[in-house]
Amino acid sequence: MTESVQHIDTLARRGIMFILSSPSGAGKTTISRMLLAADDQIKLSVSATTRPPRPGEEDGVHYHFVDDAAFDRMIEEDDFYEWAHVFNYRYGTPKGHIRSGLKDGQDVLFDIDWQGTQQLFQKDQQDVVRVFILPPSIAALQRRLENRATDSGDVIESRMDRARSEISHWDAYDYVVINDDVDECFAKVRDILAAERMKRQRQTGLIPFVRELMG
Ligand SMILES: Nc1nc2c(ncn2[C@@H]2O[C@H](COP(=O)(O)OP(=O)(O)O)[C@@H](O)[C@H]2O)c(=O)[nH]1
Ligand SMILES: Nc1ncnc2c1ncn2[C@@H]1O[C@H](COP(=O)(O)OP(=O)(O)O)[C@@H](O)[C@H]1O
């Protein structure tokens, strides 16, 4: 009779707060969407923002699009894990059920800037994994923003102006991936997530398993 072999990926484990940051246009939304489509163990933290929706963005899916008064109310009611001013708008991570989900092994994907990353790390260091995505060049970044065609010329110019200042926070991240070929970048981000899921201190199910082995 074959023994029932316990695989490490079926043992109970603690969830991960998996953060992707990058300068605007470097590809973090693209990589996020690829990850969400390919991996059913991770779900997106849908942020609230006062930025108007871009073509194709759906309220409640890509963002919770709110006005300033609603955003102020969410701050007053302490609804946010973190929030920040980014590019003349405000963005924030609703607390939701993130903390309870982590205990149940639910991984959460965050597409947030360096300010939000810093705040989450200060609050939940052991659960946070920080990945920074870089463009292969400034010229490629500009081209991608233009080709994405979701922002006006002025907005693109202001985001390019901010790119260097955003890139300057690269060394506050655990991992850095250059997004030259998008499939290669995606494969590397998936490898990072797979390895972090295997980290011993997240494998809560290992303790009884090893106790059993040791008899
Ligand atoms: N701190 C923080 N930053 C966020 C949040 N949601 C999005 N951002 C960041 O805000 C910046 C602008 O996002 P967006 O307007 O979607 O533009 P994009 O960077 O061109 O995709 C990006 O750096 C996002 O990572 C959030 O909830 N909190
Ligand atoms: N490796 C890549 N090569 C070429 N274009 C890319 C690559 N990665 C993303 N893009 C494109 O660049 C634009 C910006 O990507 P996006 O994911 O919106 O960036 P961000 O979320 O970081 O602002 C999009 O049109 C996207 O399809």
**Annotation, overall tally of beta strands:** 9
C-alpha-based Rg, rounded = 19 Å
The helix/strand series, from N terminus to C terminus, equals EHEEEHEEHEHEHHEHH
Structural class by SSE content: alpha/beta
The name of the CATH superfamily of the domain at 8-45 and 105-206 reads P-loop containing nucleotide triphosphate hydrolases
**Percent range for helical residues?**
40-55%
CATH class membership of the domain at 8-45 and 105-206: Alpha Beta
Provide structural commentary:
One of its GO terms (molecular function) is ATP binding. Pfam families: Guanylate_kin. It is found in: Cytoplasm. The chain is 41% helix and 19% strand. Strand 5 (80-86) and strand 6 (89-94) form a beta hairpin. The chain has a domain at 8-45 and 105-206: P-loop containing nucleotide triphosphate hydrolases (Rossmann fold), CATH 3.40.50. The chain has 215 residues and is α/β, with parallel strands linked by helices. The strands form two sheets. The protein has a five-stranded parallel β-sheet with strand order 2-7-1-8-9, sandwiched between helices. A four-stranded mixed β-sheet has the order 4-3-6-5. Adenosine-5'-diphosphate binds next to helix 1 and helix 5.
Short description:
With 215 residues, this protein is an alpha/beta fold. Helix content is 41%, strand content 19%. It has a domain at 8-45 and 105-206: Rossmann fold (3-Layer(aba) Sandwich), CATH 3.40.50.300.
